[in-house]
Amino acid sequence: MNKLRENSALTGWLMVSPLAFVLLFFLVLPIFLIVVVSFWRATEFSIIPAFEWDNYAFLFGSPVTYTVFFNTFKYAFVTWVCTLLIGFTVAYYLAFHIRSLTWQIALFLLCTIPFWTSNIIRMISWIPFLGRNGIANSTLISWGVIDEPVEWLLFSDFAVILAFVHLYTLFMVVPIFNTMMRIDKSLIEAARDAGANGAQILWNVIIPLTKPGIMIGTIFVVTLVMGDFITVRFMSGSQSANVGRLISNDIALLQYPSASATAIILLLTVLLVIGTMLRFVDIRKEL
Amino acid sequence: MTKTTNNISRRGILKGGAATAAFAAGSTLGAPMIWAQNIKDVTLRQFGTGVSNLNDVATKVKEDLGFTLEMTALDTDSVTQRAATQPNSFDIADIEYFICKKVWAAGNLQAMDTSKIDNYDKIAGTFRSGKLTPTSEIAQGTAPHTVGFTSGPNGTDFVQEESGWMTLIPTIYNADTLGIRPDLIGRPINNWSELLNPEFKGKASILDISSIGIMDMAMVVESMGEYTYPDKGNMTKEEIDLTLGLFTEAKKNGQFRAFWKSFDESVNLMASGEVVIQSMWSPAITAVRAQGIPCIYQPLEEGYRSWGGGLGISAALSGLELEAAYEYINWYLSGWVGGYLMRQGYYSAVPDTSKEFMSADEWGFWYEGKAAEGDILSPTGAKLAGAGEVRDGGSFLDRMGSVVCWNSVMDENQYMVRKWNEFIAA
Predict the structure, then answer these.
(1) Its family (chain A) (predicted)?
(2) Structural domain tally of chain A?
(3) Is A253's CB within 8 Å of B77's CB?
(4) Residue range B363-419, pLDDT digits in tens
(5) What is the ipTM of this complex?
(6) What are phi and psi of B187, to 5 degrees?
């Protein structure tokens, strides 16, 4: 008994083993399989075990790959900026301008209401709204703002980013609101007593203290946008592509090895991006 | 005492013997009887594209045959994927012939004995000899008869003669062309090249299904006079580059409003006026018209791109379920479904039986290209044409006689697919 107690390492191992097993089985193993398949060869209807670099060679050899990765980053960056601005403003208003906790909770729940419907529905409902003969165009024409229907509203990068912002802003609001609620109000009072104006308080007190929340929101938004394919497909009318679409097209055409190779490169890219972001902010403070 | 015992045991033996004999008879000779009782418990799972996976068919099957048919409608690529990779997820595959060419070698489908198909003799010539009429020429591409037969019950090859073993039992086919919105175009359209006409910049669309889209593209390229393919249905790498190069350029110039992948997307694009000219399928035209919006399935000088579909049986199917599958396929060819599909603008692979399920006026309108005498209704009851109107493209022989290519799987398919992916991403 004593011996067992002394061997605290063993107890430790036993305690983490269920989690380790779950992670191993449902995370590491599937990723390992994707790595393996990415070296296989595909015919039209079957995949053949092999070890060849063809899939990677084709991927890096095609100029389209670079355009598509650039597109993916572009979507992620613009969406991130928009969701951050909106998310921060909403969270700031909820946390500092609404005084009673009841109202804070009520308004916060109000923000989540659109998220009770399906992603796809919220996305597709933009299509009739933005279309050539849609509500947006007919309203603008009746107001006399424009004479001809505006084409770039739908099936364009604008539409894709609009849908992304609409879909993912809440993922920014929630963590930022959460960190803001933890800021000790006396810090703000102290800053004011020391003579800081509103902008200075925001810049020197609130933003540094909400950084972990911003970072968590950023991770959510960036990974969701970089991994998405269906929003890009619907909102761009299949005309634009990000890496997710490249993968989904490959899968649809039964090119599993090529899809795996692309998925591995995407995974590495996203890990690099997140790794870089985590160098700037210690999100453990948040947890 | 012994005597009695003997008696009993002898009687016991006799009884047992009789029971065994009866059981044996029941299980062999009596099979149809058991089958008739059990058939209600059979559930067949069918999947295919939205064009022919209709709930009305499942309802009618339950009514006429007694068993349950579960339908799953998917887009063309997902159908191919499922046929190739998930053989246990279906019993009946409702697929196109070009898909069959892709997946047959995987061995997930079993060959079907044509002697068990009651209406085999009435199946249209296109699916058997490849010839619509004895004198007609066979179009380029994956023509159904080239992948319609295999060498035997376990064949994974294709044979070019009527071998008695079919890969798919043909059910449906049609000639496809461009759909247009005459009210928004306001002038006659006669050539495939109009798809890339700068006049329709930002108002054109093409379908994002490689095996079909590449053929539409080839029709456009030939019509523009850019290139004449020795065989559109089997392009070389250079020809693929040329074709997709032209379309990539058009895409970058903003020619296309969107690409579509499933049939309902094409309906929405057309009905909303986002697109005025695009690759389209017959029932999509029907669906746009049913909303009261003018839409024409425009016959073009260069001819049609054609496709055919049929039912395949999963290799895993055996016994009672296999019998039910044959029963279902025989029922499918017996006319009711054919009539239903014809009223959507397709052609039934067994026109003779379908005719019995259509009115003379419907047959005249859809098949013979005659002017309608009264209102022509869709299977769901929407009005598609009024008295005096004629079907776009005319009669069966006019339309199918002008087919110049079939949806195809080429030798360079792998290359084409990758290039196609690049075109979509470009």
Answers:
(1) Belongs to the binding-protein-dependent transport system permease family. CysTW subfamily.
(2) 1
(3) yes
(4) 999 999 999 999 998 888 888 888 998 999 999 999 998 999 999 888 888 888 888
(5) 0.77
(6) -155, 160
